[in-house]
Design brief:
Layout (H helix, E strand, L loop, with lengths): L9 H20 L14 E4 L5 E4 L4 E4 L17 E2 L14 E9 L6 E6 L6 E8 L2 E8 L15 E6 L5 E9 L8 E5 H7 L3
Parallel strand pairs: 1-5
Antiparallel strand pairs: 2-11, 3-4, 3-5, 5-10, 6-9, 6-11, 7-8, 7-10
């Protein structure tokens, strides 16, 4: 009996290795991996053509962590993420920055211009990142310790202009630092409706 050894051509071996490497690299850089890996308790706020405002609080997820980039918070262990069970966000005094994740889903024929408001005027540092379908669209950095004229909108509250498209999935990643009590009223409102209640 003659034993035959089957050998793949060297070109095939190189091609298989390259394909495997590409799949690994793609998995490690997938932008949709941003944020906590489990959203089983995370609320998704749906914007319809009839939505004027959304008060954000109940079921929002948050974690205390020094990470500075939203692309890195996927590394925060799932057990560090908590779910707010109240209509308002009040976390007492915190020694670390807090990351909040807000999920938004838009329906057809929605208004394109919105304002996200953080009502605590004593917040030291705020970074807001808007992602659409896993890709970053907008970002801002502001806070009570920074000049007033650097704010995205010149208001006594911290307000951020968002441009949203219909039939899309968005995530707002909010990094907040404060030496005061961590009370964080959040509101998302359509811009024309917001002008009627701004600074009331």
């Amino acid at each position: 009996m003659i034993n035959q050894v089957f050998r793949l051509p060297s070109g095939w071996i190189t091609l298989c290795f390259f394909s495997l490497f590409s799949l690994i690299a793609l998995a490690s850089t997938n932008p949709e991996q941003v944020g906590p890996s489990s959203y089983t308790k995370q609320a998704t706020h749906v914007i319809t053509p009839f939505t004027n405002e959304i008060k954000i609080g109940r079921n929002i997820q948050y974690a205390a962590n020094n990470t500075r980039s939203p692309l890195e918070i996927v590394n925060i262990p799932n057990e560090e993420w908590q779910t707010n069970i109240r209509d308002t966000i009040s976390l007492g005094y915190q020694t670390q920055p807090i990351w909040f994740v807000v999920n938004i889903k838009t329906q057809p024929d929605i208004a394109p211009y919105w304002i996200f408001e953080l009502g605590n005027t004593m917040t030291d540092h705020i970074s807001l990142f808007l992602f659409k379908n896993g890709e970053q669209q907008q970002q801002w950095h502001t806070g009570d310790n920074q000049p007033f004229w650097e704010r995205p909108l010149h208001s006594t509250r911290f307000q951020f202009p968002l441009e949203l498209q219909a039939n899309s999935d968005y995530q707002i990643f909010l990094r907040v630092e404060s030496t005061e009590t961590f009370a964080m009223p959040m509101l998302l409102a359509e811009r024309s409706a917001f002008s009627l209640m701004s600074d009331q």
